[in-house]
Amino acid sequence: MCASCAWSSARGWRKSDGGAPAHAFAFERIAACWPDARFVFLLRHPASIAISWHEASPDKRTPAEAAADALRYMKATERARKAPPGVTVRMRT
């Protein structure tokens, strides 16, 4: 069992905290820790993601850097969508 899963289990957590973008990179660990997990993939328009990330921290990343970050997360989400079964929800923002 991975360390974060052991910590979550020790605290009695039974479900994810929701739409954390980093979960796209950790779907294999999440599925290994909770084999009965059900996945919901939330998709948002790429431009909307990049704009939101840039506006949240304009001193942290330029619009181009926000777009590159958004692309990394979108690619990870697409990889995750191909592995465990799940439901896809397209957000309109």
Automatic annotation (TrEMBL):
Gene3D superfamilies cross-referenced by the UniProt entry: P-loop containing nucleotide triphosphate hydrolases
Name of the protein in its database record: Sulfotransferase
Organism from which the protein derives: Nonomuraea thailandensis
Lineage summary: Bacteria, Bacillati, Actinomycetota, Actinomycetes, Streptosporangiales
